[in-house]
Specification:
Keywords: Magnesium, Metal-binding, Phosphotransferase system, Sugar transport, Transferase, Transport. With 106 residues, the chain is mainly α. The protein has 3 helices and no strands.
Length: 106
C-alpha cells in the first residue's frame, strides 16, 4: 500500500472511530435526559461511523492479504486501538441506554 493511502486509511480509522465514540457519548447523555429518540439516532450515527471505519480497515487488510505489507507505526497501532475502543464504547452505550429506558418505563 502506498504511504499516502496508508496514512489516509489510518486517519480514517481515527476520525470515524472518534466520531462513533462521540455520538455514543451523546446518546448516553440523551437517554439520561429521557430523550430516547435522540439517543437512538445517535447510536445509529455511531454505527454508521463504525461502518466507515471498517471500510478503512478493510482496505488495509486487503492490501496486506495481497502481499503489499504496510509498515506498522505507532500511528497505525493507535488507529486500531481507537477503533476497538470506539466499538466497545458504542456497545456499552447501547446497554446503558437500555437501562435508562427500563428505568423510565418503571
Amino acid at each position: 500500500m502506498e504511504d499516502q493511502q496508508n496514512l489516509e486509511a489510518v486517519m480514517g480509522l481515527i476520525m470515524y472511530g472518534g466520531n462513533a465514540k462521540s455520538d455514543a457519548m451523546e446518546a448516553i447523555a440523551a437517554a439520561k435526559a429521557g430523550n430516547f429518540e435522540l439517543a437512538d439516532q445517535k447510536i445509529v450515527d455511531a454505527e454508521e461511523s463504525l461502518v466507515q471505519a471498517h471500510h478503512s480497515q478493510t482496505g488495509m487488510l486487503t492490501q496486506e492479504a495481497q502481499g503489499n505489507h504496510i509498515q506498522v507505526t505507532l500511528l497505525t497501532v493507535h488507529s486500531q486501538d481507537h477503533l476497538m475502543t470506539s466499538i466497545a464504547f458504542t456497545d456499552l452505550a447501547k446497554e446503558i441506554i437500555d437501562l435508562y429506558r427500563r428505568m423510565d418505563n418503571a
